[in-house]
């Protein structure tokens, strides 16, 4: 049966563009734009989101081809019952590619109703990039694009402090709002823009920091045809996610302007999100990074499959409840309750979360997500955590055995050269490789060989993995 495309069977209401969003990928469309759709339904916000494609290649043509319309499918288990929520999202007005539609993109700065800016340009997006110029069309970096956009708005409205913008970045780095503002101000200074503009950025604009939490696998390629038949239309932008969502926003409370909380959404406006960030990064993200390299080498494919495997599940639970949580400050019972909820989310049968997708940039992820737990555990107990040190050995071996590993080019090249020199699977090679990797202070923020017993523990785990294979090594680790 030939299905009609979504936008030919559904009419989208016209709403003013009140939000600019850098990033058109699966996550923001199933998270922020989904929330805006609910806010439109349950309040008088009446606003739409104009998307900006951060890179030259992206989804702009496909999004515009469907008139900004797409379907979110949220699935999971709540209180023992299967839940499935399908929603046609009407909050997106259009998607602009600033590399081919520069003028149309910049004209958004002239819109008096524009108020909020949301972004997800990956962790590498909020960084300082040398060489960006004020007259680039557009500049290469995200902060440079923002600076240029704000300067256009500042000039259009003659420095009117009532036309400042509220930024809510979603990139997974700590203090994302503060870093974005810092780089914007740095560009303004480097480009020798007037002091009045710099003052306007500081006084009229608000750069919130935020923490996002929702697992979004995105387009369900294997199920797309079946789901479209159920929906009764073709949707090339189907976006799947779990039921759970949390958005913690620090640095202001704008619920009177964009009523997330009043619309029943799990959004927290706060002056300090450090507790929420530490809890999420070390328990949810940290658990992923802790077990995934070992699970891949164990022969597993998805997160759900890993939790169904009795050996890997014991590995995960021991690392989470006996090492990560004990390393953290705070109410242990509350942390354990959150951890149980996280494992329930990992078991979601509707989320096909591929392990290989989680391994992207594993070195930097281990530093951010697991190293704080490992070091805090050592400081508190005076001993090396068995599971976390094993996970570090499994991470090293992952780069040795998995040619499909994706990371920074310099990281991949370092491992390639290291394994070429120490190619034998001997105790001496395990020691040399472990000490070389752990001594990379530019990776870890310090020389980890100075942590008593850590290099020895990692080396011993690595040798066991080589000698017995990953399956037997994991089994031995949890029963040691």
Describe the structure.
The chain has 480 residues and is an alpha/beta fold. It is 49% helix and 13% strand. The chain is globular, with a radius of gyration of 24 Å. The mean pLDDT is 95.
Summed up:
The protein has helices at residues 6-9, 26-30, 32-42, 60-65, 102-107, 142-156, 176-190, 195-204, 224-231, 274-298, 303-308, 310-324, 332-346, 355-358, 362-369, 371-381, 386-401, 409-421, 427-438, 441-444, 454-468, 470-479; strands at 17-22, 48-52, 70-78, 81-89, 92-96, 116-119, 166-169, 206-207, 209-213, 239-241, 246-250, 267-270. It has 480 residues and is of the alpha/beta class. Helix 6 (142-156) crosses helix 7 (176-190), helix 10 (274-298) crosses helix 15 (362-369) and helix 10 packs across helix 17.
Helix content: 40-55%
Q: Quaternary status of these chains?
A: single chain
The helix/strand class is: alpha/beta
Please give the radius of gyration in angstroms: 24 Å
User: Strand share of the residues?
Assistant: 5-15%
Annotation field: number of helices: 22
* 3D shape: globular
Query: How is the main sheet built?
Result: 6 strands, parallel
What's the end-to-end separation, in Å?
58 Å
How is the largest sheet built, in terms of strand order? 5-2-1-6-7-8
Unreliable residue stretches? none
> Mean pLDDT, rounded to whole units?
95
Could you tell me the number of beta strands? 12
Topology readout:
Layout lengths: L5 H4 L7 E6 L3 H5 L1 H11 L5 E5 L7 H6 L4 E9 L2 E9 L2 E5 L5 H6 L8 E4 L22 H15 L9 E4 L6 H15 L4 H10 L1 E2 L1 E5 L10 H8 L7 E3 L4 E5 L16 E4 L3 H25 L4 H6 L1 H15 L7 H15 L8 H4 L3 H8 L1 H11 L4 H16 L7 H13 L5 H12 L2 H4 L9 H15 L1 H10 L1
Parallel strand pairs: 1-2, 1-6, 2-5, 3-10, 6-7, 7-8, 11-12
Antiparallel strand pairs: 3-4, 9-11
Helix pairs in contact: 6-7, 7-8, 10-12, 10-15, 10-17, 12-22, 17-21, 17-22, 19-21, 21-22
């Amino acid at each position: 049966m030939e299905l009609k495309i979504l936008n030919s069977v559904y009419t989208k209401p016209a709403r003013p563009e009140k939000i600019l969003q850098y990033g058109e990928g699966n996550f923001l469309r199933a998270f922020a734009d989904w929330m805006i759709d609910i806010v439109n339904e349950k309040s008088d916000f009446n606003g739409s989101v104009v998307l900006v494609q951060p890179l030259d290649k992206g989804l702009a043509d496909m999004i515009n081809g469907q008139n900004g319309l797409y379907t979110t499918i949220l699935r999971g288990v709540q209180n023992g019952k299967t839940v499935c929520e399908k929603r046609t999202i009407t909050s997106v007005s259009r998607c602009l590619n600033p590399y081919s539609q520069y003028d149309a993109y910049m004209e958004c700065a002239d819109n008096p109703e524009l108020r909020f800016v949301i972004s997800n340009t990956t962790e590498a997006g909020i960084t300082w990039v040398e060489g960006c110029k004020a007259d680039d069309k557009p500049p290469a970096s995200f902060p440079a694009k923002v600076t240029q956009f704000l300067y256009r708005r500042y000039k259009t409205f003659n420095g009117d402090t009532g036309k400042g913008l509220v930024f809510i970045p979603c990139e997974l780095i700590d203090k994302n709002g503060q870093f974005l503002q810092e780089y914007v101000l740095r560009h303004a200074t480097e480009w020798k823009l007037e002091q009045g503009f710099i003052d306007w950025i500081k006084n009229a604009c608000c750069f919130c920091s935020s923490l996002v939490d929702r697992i979004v696998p995105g387009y369900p390629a294997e199920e797309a045809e079946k789901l479209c038949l159920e929906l009764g239309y073709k949707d090339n932008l189907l976006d799947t996610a779990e039921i759970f969502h949390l958005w913690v926003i620090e640095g202001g409370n704008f619920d009177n302007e964009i009523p997330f909380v009043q619309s029943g959404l799990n959004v927290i406006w706060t002056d300090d999100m450090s507790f929420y960030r530490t809890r999420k990064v070390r328990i949810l993200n940290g658990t992923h990074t802790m077990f995934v390299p070992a699970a891949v080498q164990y022969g597993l494919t998805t997160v759900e499959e890993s939790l169904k495997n009795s050996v890997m599940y014991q590995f995960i639970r021991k690392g989470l409840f006996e090492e990560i949580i004990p390393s953290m400050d705070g109410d242990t019972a509350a942390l354990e309750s959150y951890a149980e909820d996280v494992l329930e989310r990992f078991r979601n049968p509707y989320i096909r979360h591929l392990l290989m997708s989680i391994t992207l940039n594993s070195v930097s992820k281990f530093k951010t997500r697991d190293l704080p737990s490992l070091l805090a555990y050592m400081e508190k107990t005076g001993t090396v955590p068995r599971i976390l040190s094993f996970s570090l050995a499994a991470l090293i071996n992952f780069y040795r055995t998995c040619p499909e590993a994706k990371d920074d080019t310099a990281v991949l090249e370092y491992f390639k050269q290291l394994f070429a020199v120490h190619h034998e699977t001997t105790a001496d090679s395990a020691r040399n490789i472990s000490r070389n990797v752990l001594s990379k202070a530019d990776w870890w923020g310090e020389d980890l060989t100075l942590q008593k017993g850590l290099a020895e523990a990692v080396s011993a785990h690595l040798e066991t993995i080589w000698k017995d294979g990953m399956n037997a090594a994991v089994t031995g680790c949890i029963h040691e």
